Amino acid sequence: MKDYNRSKSTIYIVTIFTFFSLVISFFYLQSTADKQSKEWLYHSENEIKRAKLLQDIITNIGFGGFIHNYKNSILRKDLFALEKASAQILSARILISDYRTIYPGDNELLLKVDSVLTQYSENITLIRSLSKRGLSAEEIDEQVRVDDSSALYSIAALITSNGSIYNKMSTVSIARDAEFKYSLYSIFTLVLAVLVASFIYIMFIINKNIFQYRQMSILFDLAPLSILAVNEDGYITSANKVAIDTFELDKDHINDVNIDQLTPDSISKEHKHYRENFQQSERTVPMSQRGGQFNAQRLSGDVFPANISIATYSHDGVKEAIVVVKDISDEVKQLRNANFDALTQLPNRRSIDEFLNEAILRSKRQNTDLYVALIDIDYFKKINDKFGHSFGDAVLVDLAGYFKQSIRETDFIGRWGGEEFLLVLEDATGEGALKVCENIRELISEQSKLKGCQYTVSIGCTKYSKEADATVLFDNTDVALYLSKKNGRNRTTMM
Q1: Which residues pair with 321 in a beta bridge?
Q2: Which CATH superfamily is domain 340-494 in?
Q3: How many other C-beta atoms lie within 10 A of the C-beta of residue 215?
Q4: Does the keyword Cell membrane apply (predicted)?
Q5: pTM given for the model
Q6: Interval 410-448: pLDDT, tens
């Protein structure tokens, strides 16, 4: 199953990419708009300045300018007007010089205007002289007349040029506006495409997660195991039906149950400490790896054997754990039935063989002595015939109890078959092995007598020889038992 949860980082990347795309687009459009605004402002200021220069030139030339004063000085022989006209001609020529420096493209037209102004300027001196000589206005005008048609044409051309420049600026402005709109539409289309792609991808991930969530929900409900989700404080946040049934929970109040309540009372405090330490990091641990048998406890207090697996995880700082529990009561029962005698509840021959082989290996590895004893009930057939098989079964059960009372925790006793039992004594001495066998024999004799039907056992005990194998050991022990029976029963024979 693909882990779409890991695509969270991809979603973050897509989101960040989309965000930065929007930011970059915004700043690009702002930059483009600022650039166009600056260009338009530059051209506007430039053309305004040019228009002002041209206007000043025309003002100094035309009505109210030097022409007006020039004509008045001739008609009225007004020397003051003549001086004023001279000053205006000089001012106009300076403005023309400035205009030519800033806008050399209009140089040819301006030279024509300047040429005409030069002629007018030269006529100023002549007018003074003619006026002093007493010539009439008509006579003076006749001598100082200037053909200014080229200047008028040039000024008209300059005015027309200004108009065309305004038209050009308008055209450029429209083109810039169209370019800006194109950039805007392009970026909008790109950002929209990114947003749509991001939305589609995120919806894809969301749908996949929803699908997987549904899968997990179905698995959660259908799993033949108890599954519980537990928060950092140990309280159950959710549980499947098997868990509710297994632990006898109230499905409407599972959030009030702490996982520590589902552990045997004897280890509840230790379990709390272990749980708190376990949740410090994310990990998954099958408890079977720790060895031994683990038990769980139903809410009613009933303890049962279980296989337990625990996984911890965290999300946005919130820690939780998943606990999977398998009730192995039936498996333990089946395993016990396969390895224990149903009547006496002692290990059966299968378990005896397994344990004895391990004991032989330990004896060799640790260089310790190993003793094996066969115990047989004397005249057991007669007991069965006289008192019945039920009584005979009770005798076997009683014997199992006597054996357990008489042996050490490290010793092993099992039912070999019929009325025979096998005792394994590890790390023992000959005297110690004999003492255990005699204690068993005497206890059985005394206790059976107290119950009103005395019976005895014969025992054959043999020391394991490290040069021999298990078959030889059994054979020697069987011979020792045979000698005990041959020599009168109710005795122990050591070999």
Answers
A1: 230, 312
A2: Reverse transcriptase/Diguanylate cyclase domain (3.30.70.270)
A3: 11
A4: no
A5: 0.51
A6: 899 999 999 999 999 999 999 999 999 999 999 999 999
